[in-house]
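Posting for a labmate who doesn't have an account.
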Amino acid sequence: MENLKTLYSNLTSVNIDEQKKLWDERGKGYYGEYLVFCELYKKANGISKFIMNANIPVTEDKTTEVDLMMLHETGLYVFEIKHYKGTIYGKSDDATWTQYFRTVQNSTFKNPVKQNEYHISALKKLYPDMPIYSVIVFTNEECEIKITNTVQDLVVSKLSTLFPSLNTFFSNKQKIFSLEQIDSIFTELSRYSPMREETASLSESEPVPFYTYIETISAEFKAAKAETEKQTEKLKKQRKIAKISLFASIVCAVIACAIIAVASSSAYKQICDAEVSSAMSELREMEKNFEKVDLNDANNRVLADGMLTITTELKMSEDLKDTAVLNFTIKNNAKEYGIILNSKSALLVTLLDGTVKEYKLFNSTIKLSGTDDDVWYPSKKDFTNIEILDVDSVNDIEYIKITNVAIWNYKTNQQTDAVHEFEVYSK
């Protein structure tokens, strides 16, 4: 909403629309802060005021920047906000956490709990007797959190699940601050922030007429859709450029080798061969995620008997724009083997332009029927109404496969070590 953007700008001196256009690491950080601010403004229970991007003194010549502080009637809440994708693994007392992606190399980053402890230690110097609580929020919905939390009074959450956790947290704490006390602390801390004079109490919100509310949501949706389309086009161009650059590097390596082989000794030729080999390895590694798989692999004893039959229907949605709908049935024909699909099983969709989309096979719509795994022998399973977003036509879809499939041997009552992929659709 426009009034929220204005309030955020007043608190931070940041124009969120401009940051979204830039969309660098700093811009993503600001956007994550803005999303949390909006959620707090709309959903936080109790009396509260907010200070953002405050530079809290650590020593006489050193400060530490705090993403967001919420002065609440139950205490001071310090937020560390990350707009990360992927699956996040770690423990609350680890030095670093891991950001896992299925198709690219993992990365590590400093434990945000430790970062926030540093912020809180600086605030404790200013307010040694004040209860201060740490809140870690991951704002990107393409993020999955798998964190082991052993710290008392710590909240680690995605934005979508923040308020059930946070409001429960509030209800278990004693109210210690009045509005006057919150105002007094707010005035003291505001000198460390970049906020403008036009600030507002966020403890209450004005009622909005229904039609005005709907119009605002519609406008936000259109703006978000336009931004998404823009980012999609940008990613398509980047992917094409990456492919061209990689091909060019291979060509350059080959040409360089040809020149050096003529002009120099065999030692130089060996160096060139290594360069070409490295470039080709990089190309093969990139293509590995997109290569097709054979449903009946003649070299695989488990799969050679045609244990699976997969029938597929792919069509454009009648209700949703730019959305294809996938329906398919898996039938197990083998007598000795069954397949196991679990929470990691996913659909990998490759488009003609090279874009790859990944969808969890089991979600809020399609449930796992067992405790952890579904084992089929002999039976069939229907998967219906799986939506593939942002496609103009089914002709844009080149290939679909299921990943993370295990095989179960009923005679030995054991799971095979290999993890398989099965073709669902090929153009």
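Reply:
Got it, the structure tokens are right above this. Helices lie at 2-12, 16-22, 25-43, 112-126, 162-171, 179-190, 210-263, 266-288.
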